[in-house]
Each structure stands twice: as C-alpha cells, then as structure tokens.
Amino acid sequence: MKIAIIGYGRMGKMIELAATEKGHTSGLIIDLINQDDLTVQNLTGHDVAIEFTTPASAWHNISVCFDAEMPVVSGTTGWLDRIPEIKARCLKENHAFVYSSNFSIGVNILFHINRQLARLMKSFNQYKPRIEEIHHTKKLDAPSGTAISLAQGVMNELPHLKNWELKDATDKQTLSVKAIRADDIIGIHEVIYESDIDTISLRHSAKNRKGLAAGAILAAEFIVGKKGFFTMEDVLGIK
Question: Is 46 a catalytic residue?
C-alpha cells in the first residue's frame, strides 16, 4: 500500500514509521514548506492519504483528496463543526473517508464503553457526570477532540444534558469538561460520575503515540477499496 502523508509533525513521522514497519511505503509527504505540492496530479498512484494537520487546513486537504478520488483517513481535531459537510460530500460523491478524533484502539474501546455506561446511568440521577483531560502543553486545541467525543457520547444517552462547557458546570443541563495542559503528558482522558456517596470513573492513559499511528495505519488498510463515511468503530467492528 502506498500512502500519502499529509502533515509531517510528530504524528506524521510516527505514521511513516508505522507504515514502514507493516511493509507499506510512503510516497507524497506534505509539510508546511511544500503545501502547494498537495495536488490531484501528485496524489496519482497512491492508495490512500492519511491527514493529520490543523483545523484551518483540514477541509482543503481532504477536498483535494476527494478531487483525486483518493480514500482519506483524517485525525485532525478542532474542526468538528465541519465534519457534517465533509460527510455529506463524501456520501453524495461516493468517496471513502475515515474520521476519528483519536485512532488509539484503547480510546475507541473507551468511546464504546462510555456510551454503555451513560445508558446505564440514565436511571440514576444522583450521579453527576463530568469529563477531564490532560495533555502536553504543545497541544493547540482545548478541550481535546477525544474529550469532545466523550462528551457527545454522554449527552447522546443522557437527554437532560443539553450542552458541554469548558468549565465547572453549575446547572444540571450542562456537562462540565476540564482541560489541563502539563509537560510531557501524552494524553489522559477520564469520564467521572460522582454522587454524595461514591465515584465511578472510566480512564484511559496513553503511554506513547504508537497506538495513534498504528490505528491510523489500520484504518488506512480498512478503507482501501471501500466507499462511504466510516469511524474507528467501523474499523474495529465494535459499532
């Protein structure tokens, strides 16, 4: 499989290494210094594109890949408001796209269990949910895309929650999300239900970024030859 890597920061370099370890090759590599090289012509001959960039550039990058009829795996966070537009174009024009706010297998298992727990907690309103996440100081978005996905999973199952806010929530309709930035923290996410008598929590702590890169390669292997809009739950078969 020949992969076009769009975004060559820490994740892009990890993806290149993970691809090589699995016997794949990296062709076109797009970084800040050669963004104009992302063209339909230069994508020709590749099997899939993996895109980890910034919220400001993700839409353009994915659109160029769609123009080239190129399957895309994207892990860019901070632009969830535009995902419905990408999904609509993907389905209308019969493209192939995998999006996840986090490609770690463990995190996607957490997403699945998070919804199941929220469903159970619907009958126990003495518990107040909240979400906390900790990342390294270089992470640009807050809260993380993973924390937002967890929040959405909780709200989908608990109809009294109407929105989330990046602060301590004082009303029953708001889910509190806390984002902490600290040196050398790869990523910690925790969903917490607290009552006057006890605490229930789900926690995932990443030891390194290898799981993210491995998951992105797994998603790329999954999407080649397919059409449609997919998530990591589709890739892992746990939807």
Answer: no
Give the active site residue among 135, 136, 204, 239. 135
Beta-carbon count within 10 A of 65 CB: 26
**What is the pLDDT confidence band of residue 106, given thresholds at 50, 70 and 90?**
very high
> Which residue is catalytic, options 24, 95, 139, 204?
139
Does the structure show a pLDDT above 80 at 155?
yes
Radius of gyration of the chain, Cα coordinates, nearest whole angstrom: 18
**Residue 105 banded pLDDT, cuts 50, 70, 90:** very high
| 35-45 per-position pLDDT tens digit | 999 999 999 99
Please indicate whether residue 207 is annotated as part of the active site: no
Residue ranges and CATH numbers for the domains of the chain are: 2-103+210-236 (3.40.50.720), 105-205 (3.30.360.10)
Provide the pLDDT for residue 168. 84
| 143 preceded by a cis bond (ω within 30 of 0) | yes
